[in-house]
Amino acid sequence: MKVVITYGTFDLFHVGHVRLLKRLSKLGDKLIVGISSDSFNELKGKESFFSYKERAEIVKSCRFVDEVFPENNWEQKEQDIVKYGANIFAMGNDWHGKFDHLNEVCDVVYLKRTEHVSTTEIKKKLSAT
Ligand code: C2G
């Protein structure tokens, strides 16, 4: 059983998120997603439109995702990887190189981001209308 783990805010769930999760699901048998908590988002300097609870419910309902859990800080990844028995840690390539240290505990993969769509862009376009 090959387990893939990833993390993100996943606010205003969009096609970039879906395409990433779909590709990640093809890398293994199980896909587990750490959803940034509201307090961690503050730490990341992000204010999400939907609460952690809503974002977790939306991502969990995605057919490519098997399990979600809260991401509360930068430091928990190593212990999450061990806890969930993850074989692959994967992120979009806007994070390229940022998590290479996790190579000690599992394979680290960065996949190409979907261009021309982001939560920030969506917010900008909506506020301009
Ligand atoms: N993503 C993508 N294509 C987009 C937008 C996002 O592939 N057009 C990917 C990102 O690369 C990331 C995931 O979708 O792997 C979630 O993106 P965000 O919700 O923006 O998450 P982020 O704020 O990058 O938080 O500890 C890691 C952080 O929690 C990641």
Automatic annotation (TrEMBL):
GO molecular function: nucleotidyltransferase activity
Keyword Nucleotidyltransferase: yes
Domain of life of the organism encoding this protein: Bacteria
Keywords, ordered alphabetically: Nucleotidyltransferase, Transferase
Location of the Cytidyltransferase-like domain: 5-124
Protein name, UniProt field: Glycerol-3-phosphate cytidylyltransferase
Annotated source species: Pseudoalteromonas citrea
Residue span relative to the full protein: 1 to 129 of 154
